[in-house]
Every structure is written in structure tokens, then in C-alpha cells.
């Protein structure tokens, strides 16, 4: 049985895992896991994707600058374009993370991407609970500028179930006029989708960071009034 | 106010109470006579005033006699200096009556000014201005001498009378309350304990403007002040540094309620002058004299949450700290809490954002306006600091008891000694709320253990705590026999003593479990490629050997757990590739019943006779 472990996997992965676990041990702050599931299909090419990258950068910097949020928020990023979703950034402490750089190409496999995001959140929660770290129910930000090219039924059901059970907060965001808000709504029974004003990703991520900071200073289980969503959403 | 202009335009009348008001002496002896002479004017004095002063000269109260003597002396000087004209006669009923009659009769002929300290009379006189039946282009000015000895207009704002009324009421109560004589507490003023929440006072008060940075505010005690720097903000409003170096909280419109005002008025009636407790010093008004906030002393340092409760921040802020500093810090905070408790003040929302730390001996409690005062509840709270029996209840709807408060106190001490770790955070537990409600305190005491204490430094710290301290937590969290603040002070003084004597480790984050010196032995780690010598509890070693188990050092145990967990989370080896492992997570159904962490080394601490089922379980797993 022991030998089995030794052959388990390339060493650096375990080290990375070990580091992330050490950080979980050492930092007693309750965590807010946030998974960004972002459309990086071909239609995002050009200005949209570069604005999105700027927005993410701003988001992560804003959180790092707040003492409490920096030790509480944990961020993962899943992009979907091409045939398969891709994990651009996995959960660990923000201090250890490089800001991802997203590129646009390919199709819109939204169902698979949401599934990946939910799986990652689930695993992270499991990590928290096995190490004895308190956590807030996770957030999932879902952004798209189009309509899915794969079957979303299962993923939408799963995210809706979690949201209805208040075990997940979904923020569905449409980008541009081609974004299919009705499809987005299927993932999010509690918060209605919002269409981003132009390419104002920065305003959205600024708002998101403020919301994260507000939550990180609240207590678990308490319902938090998020800051007013000004400047980024169309009515 | 320019007294010269007033004297030039108005006929001046002064009430008895102003003549006898000590803070008015400067005005009456200097400013007013100067103005009268330069304008060749006189003060009008009802003869009844002289009678009243004469009567007060014979008062039984020494202070009144003294004030009357001063008034008589000044009036004589006015008469001699010919700047006073008497009118009316001793046959008049009351001064009030005389004044009202004179003002009613002459108000159409002259501009009249009346200086009094009596709100009711001032109001009555002022009302003449609004008498519709008489049309007049003359004006009545109603004035008073304020606490700074300055001539100022009466303010008949609704709130103003509200506040005066409140201040009276609460002072009345405090005088009635007889405190039983006890030599050590002779001077202590205890607040009454509320029986139930005062209701129907949640309505907001009218406020036209909320003062902003660089604007002026007014206060009674400190005069006008400027908001010169924003130093914080919270759910209820913003915190500013003012031009006199004190701190001012300006509420948001929605937080300016009758309840808030009433609570603050009581707090002002029971002044607390204790360094480290940022008790309200005065009410704050906007330029329209509407209540908008309060003044308090300045606190220094960073909130507990931002300076102590996260390891890297603790190491950055206090790099030299040891365990004894944490204990000292807890004692410093407890001392403030005890001071409040002795006075029947329940903090309610004890929380690490409202305690500022300068160093381990200088701490500050802020947000005192949220404290529970008499029948005014503390309307907020956080899950971790809330006793199981009141979890989920609406905080504004009931009064907390000392028992509730002691739960919060225990949580606070726990989170200081295990910096930032909530007492109920545990492996495979429910939500914090559920854990607290069920009394699932995960740390072991003697034979008792759940095996669910969180991983990492926490169980080591716990194992190094003195038994008395552990027991105190145990009783508070598990058995609902909560210690009071004084008892906690004793427990921590004992901890301080054991550290100072070298009986217990002074390490901030000890690296391993406590093994008593007489029980310590060494073993060689039997993991392949390790072979290191490590410290082990003698009984544990014996037991491991008896059961035919491998001796494994803590580091290797950790590694084994880690590998197991990783496998559990990310599936079998085939599914993981080195490069994009993060990108290809599969959801391969984790079996929730299969607990990868069934081993809790902390169980070994005192429990050697009966191997626990967890241990058995763990050992079985490794019997290949
Ligand atoms: N007396 C004070 N001196 C210095 N800073 C203060 C003082 N009072 C409050 N603060 C700062 O302002 C923050 C918010 O104050 P608080 O009273 O908690 O506001 P709220 O009740 O609106 O949440 C505090 O965390 C603290 O950092």
C-alpha cells in the first residue's frame, strides 16, 4: 500500500498541493471561494478579451490590498473556448497566485465549464472541511457573450439546485447584445442575469471586489447586503 | 452674537436664573456693561427679580446662597452704574408673569430681547413672535448664556427639547438608584439592568444633512468642531478625526433613530472615564442643530482582526511576540470588559473589528454605542461570538444576559490564544452555527476527544495550554458552565505564571504536541527514506510497538495524509497528468463516508490506556 503512494504522481504536484494545504492550516480566517467561469470563445477576441483581462487584474489587486479579504477570498478561473474548458487558475491563497492571462478562440462549451467550476468548488470545500477551516458558501461568476455550444442541462440543474439550497451564489453576466440571457438564467434561479454595460468589465470587477470585501468582513451565515451595482449593468 | 448690535436695537430683559448662572458672570460683568455704556442703554429689571434673589440669599443650600450673593452684587453694581431700570412691583405674581405681560404689551412698540436659562419660559416668550392676532414689525429675541459663557439664541428645534427631556429623565433615574454601600465600590455608578427591550423607538429622526469631511459640526461641551480626517467607516456611519483631536462618529441617515439618541443620552449621563474605552463624550449636531452622531476619545492601533488574527499579519505587526504577549493582551482586554461588566454594561457584539490593539497592554474598545445599555439592546452580533441558545435570534429584539456575554468572552480569549482560529472550526463539521448549537467543541480534554480538531498548528497550541485553561474552554463551550470575566482573568493569570516559571512553552506557534519531560523518549521514523529520530510520548511508542505498528514521525504522517487526501480529491493516478492536472479535474464522485482524516494525533496526548477507535482505524489502514 505504501509503495502505491510513492509512485503516485510527479513530485512537484504534491509539493504544490502540500503548500496550498499548509496555507490552509496556517491561516485561520474563514474562506470565501470564488470561481470565475469566463467565456473566452472566438467572439471575445480583440477588445473584449483585453478588457476582461484588465478587469481580472483589477479584481485580484483590489482583493490583495485589503488585509481581511486577502486572507479570506480564494479565486479560481475556468475559461471556456476551444473544445474543452480550461482551468486557468486553481484555488490557493491569493498571495501565491499569478494573475492569469486569457486568450480568446474556439467554441462556447458552457455546460462543461460550469461543471468544471462546480467540481473545483466542491473539492475546495472538501479541502476546507477536512482541514477544519471555516468557509462561506461559494460564489460562481458566469460570463458569456453568446450561447452555449454544448448541452448545459446537467450543469444548469446542478448549479440551480445549489443556488436554491443557498449553497452557492451565482452571478450570471451577459456581455454584448448576442449574449443569451435566457440560457444564463437557467444556471441562476435566484439572481437574474445582468447584461454588462458595453465592455465595462472593470466596473463589474471593482464591484465584485467590494462585494467580496464586504462578505469577508461579515460572519458566515449572515446575509450580506452587497454594494449597489452601479456603473456596470444595463437595466 | 454681537452684543453691541443687540443692545443698540433691542430692549434687554434678564431673568433671575441668568443673573444667578455662574457661567454668565463674565458676560454680565464685562461684555454687557461695556455694550450698555457705549450705546447709552439700560437693562430692564422686573422688581420681582430682586425679590427672588433676596429669597435665594436665605436658601438652605450653600451653593444657591453663593450664586444669589453674586447676583445681588452684580445687580447693585448695575444700579449704581445706572445701567439698570427697574419696573413693575413686588405685588406682581411671578417674574414669568411680569415678563409675559410686559412683552405682550410692548412687543408692537419695541424690539425686545429676553435672556433666560429657563427653556419653558423662553419658549413661551418666543411663541409671542408667532401670535397671529397681533401684527407687528417688531421682533422678540430669546437668548441664553450657554455653558461656555457665551450669549446664544435658544434653539427650539424639536430634537432639542427631546434631548433635554431625555437628559433629565435619565439623570433622574440615576439619582433615585441607591447603590448599596461598599467601600471598594463607593464611587462606582452602576447602570440599571434592563428587563425588556424598549420598543416603538426605531423611527428615524428628521435629518436634513449629514456632515461630511472638512465640514463643521457642533457640540455642547466642545463647541464647534471640524471633521478633519476620515479614519474609518462601518455599517452605521463614518468615523472622523475632529479639530480638537477627538474622534467623531457621524451616522448614516438610516441609523439616526430615537432609540440611538435615547441610548446615547443615557451613556452621557453615566460618563465613563477609563482609558481604552471609547465612551461617548458628547452629542454631535449638524448646522441645523439636528442630532447626527457623537464624540469619543481617540483609539490607537489596528483592529484585532487585522493585526493578530492572521499569522502573517501578527508576525509583521509584532515580530517579537511570544505566547506570553498573547496572554497579556487577553488580560488587557479582559480588564476593560470587567470594568464594563461591573457597571452592568454588556458589550453584546464583542468582535475583533471593534477592539484596537496598540500593543499587548494598550487596547481600545470602540463602537461603544452598540453596547447594551439598560433597556436598549445591542442590535448586532456575529455567529462565532453568539451563544448557542441565542443563535439565529434577531439581536435587536431581546436583551442579552451576562451568560450570553460570557460565551462571547470565551470565544474572544480562544481566538487570541489560538490566533484567529474560531473555537468551533473543525474537520468535517457542520456550519459554524450548527457546530455552536450542538456544542461540538472539537478539542480534546483528557479522555474526551472528538478527533476533529483542525489540522495544522492549532492542536499543537491547544496541547500546550495549561490544563486549567483547557478546562475553562471546555466548560464554556461544551458544558455550558461559562466562566465569568473575573474567573477568566484568574485562569489567564495562572497561564501567565506557568509560562513565566518556564513550566509551559512560550512559543507562539509550537511545532509539535506537548510531551511532558518525564514521558518523552525518541524513536526512529520507519518510513522509507526518512529514518529521522523524533520525540515521542513514551506510552504511545510502547503501544505502537505492542500493536506491531510502524513508528512514523510527524512530518511523514503529514505527508501520508496529504497524499491520501490528494488521491481522494483528484482521483486515481491515471487521471492526473503532471502539467495540466489543474485543468482536467474530473468529478469522480468522492465518497463522503470515506474520511481520509481519521487519525488525530492529538488523541494521543493523554489517552493511552484505551486506544481510541480512530486510532485503531488508522492503524488498520496501514496493516498491509
Ligand atoms: N475612537 C476611535 N478611534 C479610532 N478609530 C476608530 C474609533 N472608533 C472607530 N474607529 C475605526 O472605525 C471603524 C468603524 O467603527 P465602528 O464603530 O465599528 O463603526 P460601525 O458601528 O458603523 O460599524 C473601526 O473598526 C475603527 O477602525
TrEMBL record, chain B:
Region of interest (Disordered), residue spans: 427-448
Biased composition (Polar residues): 428-438
InterPro entries: Kinase-like_dom_sf (IPR011009), Prot_kinase_dom (IPR000719)
SUPFAM superfamilies, alphabetized: Protein kinase-like (PK-like)
GO molecular function list: ATP binding; protein kinase activity
Pfam family, one: Pkinase
Gene3D superfamilies: 5'-nuclease (3.40.50.1010), Transferase(Phosphotransferase) domain 1 (1.10.510.10)
Span of domain Protein kinase: 225-497
Protein name as it appears in the record: Protein kinase domain-containing protein
Source organism (scientific name): Thermoflavimicrobium daqui
Biological classification of the source: Bacteria, Bacillati, Bacillota, Bacilli, Bacillales
Amino acid at each position: 500500500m505504501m509503495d502505491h503512494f510513492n509512485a503516485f504522481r510527479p513530485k512537484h504536484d504534491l509539493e504544490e498541493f502540500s503548500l496550498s494545504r499548509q496555507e490552509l492550516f496556517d491561516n485561520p480566517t474563514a474562506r470565501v471561494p470564488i470561481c470565475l467561469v469566463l467565456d473566452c470563445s472566438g467572439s471575445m477576441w480583440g477588445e473584449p478579451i483585453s478588457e476582461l483581462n484588465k478587469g481580472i487584474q483589477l479584481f485580484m489587486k483590489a482583493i490583495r490590498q485589503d488585509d481581511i479579504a486577502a486572507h479570506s477570498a480564494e479565486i479560481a478561473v475556468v475559461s471556456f473556448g476551444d473544445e474543452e474548458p480550461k482551468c486557468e487558475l486553481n484555488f490557493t491563497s491569493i498571495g501565491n497566485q499569478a494573475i492569469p492571462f486569457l486568450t480568446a478562440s474556439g467554441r462556447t462549451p458552457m455546460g462543461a465549464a460550469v461543471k468544471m467550476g462546480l467540481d473545483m468548488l466542491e473539492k475546495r470545500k472538501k479541502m476546507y472541511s477536512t482541514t477544519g477551516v471555516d468557509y462561506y458558501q461559494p460564489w460562481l461568476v458566469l460570463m458569456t457573450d453568446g450561447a452555449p455550444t454544448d448541452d448545459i442541462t446537467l450543469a444548469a440543474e446542478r448549479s440551480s439546485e445549489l443556488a436554491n439550497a443557498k449553497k452557492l451564489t451565482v452571478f450570471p453576466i451577459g456581455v454584448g447584445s448576442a449574449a443569451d440571457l435566457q440560457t444564463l438564467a437557467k444556471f441562476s434561479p435566484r439572481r437574474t442575469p445582468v447584461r454588462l454595460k458595453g465592455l465595462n468589465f472593470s466596473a463589474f470587477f471593482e464591484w465584485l471586489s467590494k462585494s467580496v470585501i464586504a462578505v469577508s468582513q461579515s460572519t458566515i451565515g449572515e446575509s450580506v447586503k452587497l454594494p449597489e451595482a452601479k456603473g456596470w449593468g444595463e437595466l | 452674537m454681537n452684543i453691541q448690535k443687540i443692545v443698540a436695537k433691542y430692549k434687554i430683559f434678564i431673568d433671575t436664573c441668568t443673573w444667578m448662572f455662574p457661567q454668565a458672570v463674565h458676560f454680565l460683568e464685562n461684555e454687557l456693561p461695556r455694550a450698555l455704556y457705549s450705546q447709552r442703554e439700560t437693562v430692564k429689571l422686573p422688581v420681582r427679580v430682586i425679590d427672588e434673589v433676596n429669597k435665594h440669599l436665605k436658601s438652605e443650600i450653600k451653593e444657591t446662597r453663593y450664586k444669589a450673593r453674586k447676583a445681588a452684587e452684580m445687580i447693585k453694581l448695575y444700579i449704581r452704574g445706572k445701567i439698570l431700570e427697574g419696573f413693575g412691583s413686588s405685588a406682581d405674581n411671578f417674574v414669568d408673569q411680569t415678563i409675559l405681560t410686559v412683552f405682550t404689551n410692548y412687543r408692537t412698540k419695541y424690539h425686545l430681547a429676553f435672556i433666560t436659562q429657563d427653556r419653558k419660559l423662553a419658549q413661551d416668550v418666543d411663541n409671542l413672535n408667532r401670535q397671529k392676532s397681533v401684527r407687528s414689525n417688531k421682533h422678540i429675541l430669546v437668548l441664553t448664556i450657554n455653558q461656555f459663557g457665551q450669549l446664544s439664541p435658544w434653539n427650539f428645534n424639536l430634537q432639542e427639547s427631546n434631548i433635554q427631556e431625555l437628559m433629565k429623565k435619565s439623570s433622574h433615574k440615576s439619582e433615585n438608584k441607591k447603590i448599596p454601600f461598599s467601600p471598594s465600590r463607593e464611587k462606582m455608578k452602576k447602570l440599571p439592568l434592563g428587563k425588556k427591550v424598549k420598543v416603538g423607538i426605531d423611527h428615524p429622526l428628521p435629518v436634513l444633512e449629514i456632515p461630511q469631511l472638512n465640514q463643521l459640526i457642533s457640540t455642547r461641551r466642545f463647541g464647534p468642531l471640524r471633521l478633519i480626517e476620515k479614519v474609518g467607516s462601518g455599517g452605521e456611519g463614518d468615523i472622523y478625526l475632529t479639530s480638537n483631536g477627538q474622534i467623531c462618529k457621524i451616522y448614516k441617515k438610516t441609523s439616526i433613530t430615537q432609540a440611538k439618541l435615547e441610548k446615547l443620552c443615557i451613556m452621557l449621563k453615566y460618563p465613563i472615564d477609563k482609558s481604552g474605552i471609547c465612551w461617548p463624550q458628547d452629542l454631535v449636531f449638524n448646522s441645523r442643530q439636528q442630532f447626527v452622531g457623537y464624540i469619543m476619545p481617540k483609539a490607537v492601533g489596528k483592529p484585532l482582526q487585522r493585526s493578530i488574527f492572521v499569522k502573517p499579519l501578527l508576525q509583521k505587526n509584532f515580530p517579537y511576540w511570544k505566547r506570553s504577549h498573547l496572554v497579556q493582551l487577553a488580560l488587557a482586554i479582559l480588564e476593560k470588559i470587567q470594568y464594563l461588566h461591573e457597571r452592568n454594561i454588556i458589550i453584546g457584539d464583542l468582535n475583533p473589528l471593534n477592539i484596537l490593539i496598540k500593543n499587548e497592554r494598550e487596547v481600545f474598545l470602540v463602537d461603544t454605542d452598540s453596547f447594551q445599555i439598560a433597556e436598549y439592546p445591542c442590535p448586532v452580533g456575529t455567529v462565532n461570538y453568539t451563544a448557542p441558545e441565542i443563535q439565529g435570534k434577531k439581536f435587536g429584539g431581546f436583551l442579552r444576559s451576562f451568560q450570553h456575554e460570557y460565551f462571547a468572552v470565551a470565544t474572544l480569549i480562544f481566538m487570541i490564544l489560538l490566533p484567529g482560529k474560531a473555537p468551533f472550526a473543525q474537520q468535517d463539521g457542520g456550519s459554524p452555527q450548527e457546530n455552536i448549537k450542538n456544542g461540538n467543541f472539537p478539542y480534546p480534554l483528557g479522555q474526551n476527544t472528538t478527533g476533529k480538531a483542525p489540522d495544522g498548528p492549532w492542536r499543537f497550541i491547544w496541547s500546550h495550554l495549561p490544563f486549567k485553561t483547557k478546562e475553562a474552554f471546555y466548560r464554556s463551550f461544551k458544558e455550558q458552565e461559562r466562566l465569568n470575566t473575573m474567573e477568566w482573568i484568574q485562569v489567564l493569570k495562572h497561564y501567565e505564571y506557568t509560562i513565566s516559571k518556564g513550566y509551559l512553552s512560550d512559543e507562539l506557534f509550537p511545532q509539535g504536541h506537548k510531551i511532558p519531560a518525564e514521558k518523552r523518549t525518541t524513536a526512529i521514523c520507519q518510513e522509507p527514506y526518512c529514518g529521522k529520530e523524533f520525540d515521542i510520548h513514551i506510552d504511545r511508542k510502547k503501544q505502537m510497538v505492542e500493536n506491531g505498528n510502524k513508528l512514523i514521525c510527524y512530518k511523514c504522517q503529514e505527508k501520508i495524509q496529504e497524499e491520501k487526501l490528494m488521491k481522494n480529491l483528484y482521483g486515481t493516478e491515471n487521471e492526473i497528468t503532471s502539467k495540466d492536472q489543474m485543468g482536467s479535474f474530473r468529478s469522480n464522485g468522492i465518497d463522503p463516508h470515506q474520511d481520509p482524516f481519521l487519525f488525530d494525533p492529538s488523541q494521543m496526548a493523554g489517552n493511552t490506556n484505551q486506544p481510541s477507535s480512530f486510532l485503531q482505524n488508522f492503524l488498520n489502514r496501514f496493516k498491509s
